[in-house]
Amino acid sequence: MNTHNNCEFSEKVYEYMDGTLNPEERERVLEHLKGCESCSELKREQEAFAALLDSVNEELPEGLHDRIMSNVRREMRRDRFMRALKRYAMPVAAALVLAFTVPAVLRANDGTDIANAPATDEMFYSLGEDAYAPAETEGGLGRSAEQDGVYDVKEDAEDSCASADTKATIAASTGAVTGAPGAPAPEEPALEAESAHTDAAYFNYSVTHTFGGEGVVTCYVCPIFTLSADEYKTLLREFDGSVMQKDESGAVLKNSDKLLGKLSELVDVDSSAEKFDFVRINSK
Amino acid sequence: MDERERDKLTSLALEAAGGSESAFEELLTKTERTVYNMALRATGGDEHDAADLSQEIYIKLWRSLPSFRGDSSFGTWLFRIVQNASADRARKLAKERTVSLTLESDDGEEGREETDVVDLSPTPEERTLENERKEDVLRALNTLSDKHREIVMLRYMDGYSVNEIADILSLDEGTVKSRLFRAREKLKIILEKWNGFD
Fold first, then answer.
1. Touching check for A15 and chain B: CB below 8 Å?
2. ipTM score for this prediction
3. What pLDDT, in 10s, does the model give residues A210-264?
4. Which end of chain A is more exposed for a tag (fewer CB within 10 A), N or C?
5. If you classify domain B3-100 with CATH, what class do you get?
6. Does domain B129-195 have CATH number 3.90.550.10?
7. Is the distance from CB of A69 to CB of B43 less than 8 angstroms?
8. Shortest Cα distance from A61 to chain B (angstroms)?
9. How many C-beta atoms lie closer than 10 Å to residue B99's C-beta?
10. Which residues numbered 44-63 in A keep a CB inside 8 Å of some CB on B?
11. Domain segments of chain B: what residues?
């Protein structure tokens, strides 16, 4: 074994074998090796040494490569399935949730008989137990002011919720959207004819959620309470809940007992207001 | 493995991270022998366990590929996966061994702990020249200190570069080079003494 290589390049030969030289240095070593038998012998020794140590390694058992690939392919298929599930099943699941939890929207432009009004390009949902579902006539949008005698329903065209396409998607997937052609209207409990409050109206507050990359619009019906400018400012200043939306004429606030308590100090608040998730306050 | 091959591994890993099955299989082909031997050492030479561990390692590799960005060398990254998988397996086996000590046999008698003693020494018929050399190398490796043996094995048996070894062992390159040099010289002297290594 060549342990007595005195050539000044011998250290560079080790570094060359270890791959720690830059390209320029590597070239210089290669040139040197052409003319130095001692360093060439050292290089051969190093290569034999590396081969000897590598020979201690066992060869891969037969079939192991295929077994490993087979397991990994199973994982790949599982991952693809989970991705597909997220992409396609989520919007359907979201639509099912919307159909059972979102309230119906009743509108009319001019207070005409809503039950016989033609369906507009607005989203409407069943309220479930709350009695603002549209009437059973085809295309009907719900009770008229005369019918329920409780609230005037105002349409706010600027706040119309969803496109006809979205409405159709939900109707197709659930068949439970009241008012959709062919969809049966749910049974609705009778509205209480009496109420302490007669000036309230509805506001449509819409939120767009994203499920699996698709936008889905949810509409909420908000009772409207109109306050003086000072009362409005004071309430907003003291309100510690979520302000969902704010514009020139008012704001949508997340409903709470505390909020209703404050509002009832300023205006009449019907007990049914508790059932709403959001409340609209307008400034005069 | 030279630098070009290391770069190739990194680009295959990035391709496989994007979902390419063929890139993953090529990555497997280039690394399986090294991984299997690391698994063999981790399982005390048991081929069956080493095969199982290798499969676990590549499943873990597939699952963690999305987090590989190519900032470190793929070899270093794979080493950590092998280390973690081996440690997990060792912990699991330690737990199972503890449980098995309290098992009773079916007839209600308290079971005795059984240890399988496997004689790995080859029979005279099995000792070929190649096997002799392998054994000599292993015995020679065992004469080295832990830190020298570790570096020699990473460099020559697992094929890691000096840079990668520095990363794996959290040492600077100079320290790795000098330890490698000393370990190599010691081994050569021992092997030459035993076998006239040249």
1. yes
2. 0.79
3. 545 555 567 788 889 999 999 999 999 888 888 888 888 899 998 998 899 999 9
4. C
5. mainly alpha
6. no
7. no
8. 8
9. 9
10. 45, 48-50, 52-61
11. 3-100, 129-195
